[in-house]
Specification:
about 160 residues; mainly alpha; Arc Repressor Mutant, subunit A; 5 helices
Length: about 160
Amino acid sequence: MVCFALVMPTNNPSTLESKIHEIVARAAAEIAATVRGDLAAEVQNLLQSMAIVPPARAPAPRPAVPAPRPAAPAQTTGKTAATKNKQVAKPKRGPKKGSKRRLISDAELNVVLDVLKDNPGLTSVGIQKAANIDSKQAARVLNKLRETNRVKWEGERAMATYTIA
């Protein structure tokens, strides 16, 4: 009768476990990097086929450990303590400098007035549909007509009805 014995390594089990853990972690990182690269390439090909994005260069390989950022050098600009602590003003909201909101033309006003001549008592939604304009433009035109007293309105908000003054 022949008997086989399985011989276990005599290494410390914790050392063996740590080696296995290192191997598995390295393999997982390589698999993730490969899958990430393949997915990025497929997305890029899909976007190129849809003519959305110009062809891009190959992605740079990611380092395993991010490099430490160098410390910023001290700047000496000759500023006094008062100017160093000066608060920076927040940017203003609204249209950018140099760009203006498009003015409402007389033709747009006349279109809405013509709609109201034919159909007095319409709401803002009815005017939008009849004049074929969007809600923001209708609101701007109706506000302009109210400011210049060319229309009268009764009611509030969405239920307001408009007639020619």
